[in-house]
Amino acid sequence: QVLLVESGGGLVQAGGSLRLSCAASGRTVSIWRMGWFRQAPGKDREFVASIRWSGVTTYYADSVKGRFTISRDNAKNTVYLQMNSLQPEDTAVYYCAAAVSNRAATSDRGYDYWGQGTQVTVSS
Q1: Which of 10, 53, 89, 112 counts the most CB atoms within 10 A of its CB?
Q2: 27-31, 52-56, 57-61, 102-106 — which is least confidently predicted?
Q3: Is 99 exposed, middle or buried (0-12, 13-18, 19+ CB in 10 A)?
Q4: What is the mean pLDDT of the chain?
Q5: 46-94 per-position pLDDT tens digit
Q6: Which residues contact 65 (CB under 8 A, 6 or more apart)?
């Protein structure tokens, strides 16, 4: 079992920045990949970014590429999502997720454990 706890969400003005954190605990040795997803009101959950737990391979959705950066700190069992140049369209509940095998990196179908989500609201 892997437990994921997110933090760092909040309210920010357009053009501002936020950094989300996701602390993993439990059977962290089983983690292959960590990812971030988001879900806006009335919309489906969508992929944001992912990173290998060991290594530097990353993936980003086109909508956030160049603005968001995913990173990790294995010593702290934590992944981060640095979000810059935020826009109202980025408003959503953001979820972190963990995959225990090398499956689809950009689909929620490739992940096994999920955090509770943290709200990000960007005002215009």
Answers
A1: 53
A2: 52-56
A3: buried
A4: 96
A5: 999 999 998 789 999 999 999 999 999 989 999 999 999 999 999 999 9
A6: none
